[in-house]
């Protein structure tokens, strides 16, 4: 590419953009990642670390790649295989029936009786009603993984520009020619937009409507506890894991919709309105950990498209742009989403999965008031109780 | 027409789920030290109902965890009997009695572990919201105005053996001795020689304890010569140009402190003592202000990272004011408390009944606790000398077992047992090549500052070590963000056992977007409709 540019510019140093950079660099492509803050500092470093997404067309690739990622990247991700989900609410005793409708063939799983759950999850209590165990899926450490992608990509020559926000996109002759930052323009042959909640705004610069709405989700984490034989444990309305250090990190429950997020906004803070309800549910799920002290919480902003499904697509016009929003479920899929983006950028089509149903086209003619229709709106303030005399 | 299948309207968002708190007060004051008591009294005199919250006396469990101060495992059994400690705390602080008399709602042994005001992402908040907790439960209190007078905590530097009982901070020492009458040591070595160290030594001697030595990294004592001389006369050794190298110990903890010449690692001496008090400096307690999102700045002359505030203690947040050491180390705490109360009342449209005394004009007092010497430069002198003499094997973060070397090398935590050439090539210098070093990033990569003491023993020294390792100015290392709960609370205590029915009914593991979880193969088939009709899988 030209002296002032690079072959591919990727906007967004989250796991999607970083994985794409690493995959492209593995194919010898010259890549620059432009990130408004620090790599993995948004949703990519603030999530539950779950890697079990059987609804996705990228699922098989997700499952194939995770066990190899540490070795492929050369840096640790803390990936752990397997998942247990168990319930403590008697109304959910038969939840595995609903699940069985959805699990793809060829992946091993079984129903667990309460004693089995307690053997694998010693912090569980007498209140277990039923569980399932997946011999696939798993979890990893999001922060370590995001940095692992970044370092592995750098090792292959990728340039990562941190603290550099993309403010504009330049185009000529029906093609994107570069991006604009406070520090000047960076030319490119192809552009990948993987900017999380800001992806819609960036696409709008190209005159393309990518409907999405941002919302905040939160997690809490306890002090370290003795390691359980099995660490990937969900249930009782929670997702999470015991970290390899021993902490319990759990999320779930109400999100708060934002009107909008700015192109250069700082990451969000936890709200305090879900923290205590999360603590309650962790104490119910793992009663033998009820004494464990919560030492932190955090929040991340994630974007959702109107049907909650990703958009991963190489556009037809301008045809040198590939866009990827994972619609709030993108950490676990990142080894595969990066591979898909690499294929789209280099070959124009994904080599290992059909992605046609994830095209932007499905939103053509979407009602203009879709956020109101879906009730995806920031809450009204709750009235304050009158001050006491 | 659009071909997209839309999910049903969202019932899983926070809207309508979070109950307004049952209790609401016009003014909450956090911290019943000098500044907080003065603020509460001033407001009460103006006829405003005030809730004054203080975590003291803290439980034995927290004393053991070094929260909120660095108590260092040198407490007597007295910390096991909270009733006695309450009496003692009241005796030690006469202003509390006055506050009680004026009708202030004083809550002792109660911590404020979080506070929030309406803003982006917190649109559902009507008024300000504070999270409170005692040993048994947590609850929320609404407020119109909040005055944070959370004081200061200890600046700490670790050295070999400093993770054993007997190494503590000056604030922790002072609280155990004067606040709780529960200090278990006999003979002290004090690290530092500025105002804080001198005051620590004077207090200890007055209480009948032995003070073996003051240890100072620079060539001359930092505090007033007459006070230093007075201590020397009482037999306190003044050891300058030295830093702690190692605490020697036995089954009961510290038995001696080995100090080393900062320029000559072979010149050492051992000071017999059962307690080492770190009195190099203090750190403004800004946790709640950071959780609130008040704007802050790095101001070494005010103690480091402090909230941006005006004369009256107004912060960038309309409802939040600051007073005392957490706003500016060493200012006249009582006067700043009164100013903050008046400013908070004025912002509510209420005038103080008492005219402002001339003595309440702002500015640093000539009293205790000012930042020592030239602020961060002084702290860096300690950090550099201790790194040079103690080496890289010393723990920088005790809770998480992270050595200085791990930190400088940006090494993954030891429990991963990770070794690779790729990681060996990475360190703080390479990281700095990608952009200014950031303590939150280092935290995530090395786990330094991630432990149960919530980084109270390591936050500042890790930032200093990062500056040294990356060759960047210490002032430029961004603060690692504070997150609620700013006190470590058991799950069962933090839990909301009385949440709304709407919270329970509308709770979903993720966003509750039914279309999101339909298998890709099924999209657009009859199976999609079946699954949507069946609802979420769990
Ligand atoms: C609490 C929580 C729990 C979650 N749990 C899970 C889970 O268990 N499993 C799972 O798979 N997913 C989970 N997710 C979702 C997952 O984190 C995200 O889907 C995923 O991280 C998205 O990655 P990304 O790279 O696409 O976007 P992001 O992580 O949002 O990254 C986008 C990047 O683009 C940058 N950027 C934005 N605008 C610009 C600009 N103008 N210029 C330059 N850079 C810009 C941002 O700074 C950001 O770093 C969770 C999310 C949250 C918040």
UniProtKB/TrEMBL annotation, chain A:
<protein>
    <submittedName>
        <fullName>FAD-binding oxidoreductase</fullName>
    </submittedName>
</protein>
<dbReference type="GO" id="GO:0016491">
    <property type="term" value="F:oxidoreductase activity"/>
</dbReference>
<dbReference type="Pfam" id="PF01266">
    <property type="entry name" value="DAO"/>
</dbReference>
<dbReference type="GO" id="GO:0005737">
    <property type="term" value="C:cytoplasm"/>
</dbReference>
<dbReference type="InterPro" id="IPR001763">
    <property type="entry name" value="Rhodanese-like_dom"/>
</dbReference>
<dbReference type="InterPro" id="IPR036188">
    <property type="entry name" value="FAD/NAD-bd_sf"/>
</dbReference>
<keyword id="KW-0560">Oxidoreductase</keyword>
<dbReference type="InterPro" id="IPR006076">
    <property type="entry name" value="FAD-dep_OxRdtase"/>
</dbReference>
<feature type="domain" description="Rhodanese">
    <location>
        <begin position="12"/>
        <end position="50"/>
    </location>
</feature>
Automatic annotation (TrEMBL), chain B:
<feature type="domain" description="FAD/NAD(P)-binding">
    <location>
        <begin position="27"/>
        <end position="331"/>
    </location>
</feature>
<keyword id="KW-0560">Oxidoreductase</keyword>
<dbReference type="InterPro" id="IPR023753">
    <property type="entry name" value="FAD/NAD-binding_dom"/>
</dbReference>
<protein>
    <submittedName>
        <fullName>FAD-dependent oxidoreductase</fullName>
    </submittedName>
</protein>
<dbReference type="Pfam" id="PF07992">
    <property type="entry name" value="Pyr_redox_2"/>
</dbReference>
<dbReference type="InterPro" id="IPR041854">
    <property type="entry name" value="BFD-like_2Fe2S-bd_dom_sf"/>
</dbReference>
<dbReference type="GO" id="GO:0016491">
    <property type="term" value="F:oxidoreductase activity"/>
</dbReference>
<dbReference type="InterPro" id="IPR036188">
    <property type="entry name" value="FAD/NAD-bd_sf"/>
</dbReference>
<dbReference type="InterPro" id="IPR051691">
    <property type="entry name" value="Metab_Enz_Cyan_OpOx_G3PDH"/>
</dbReference>
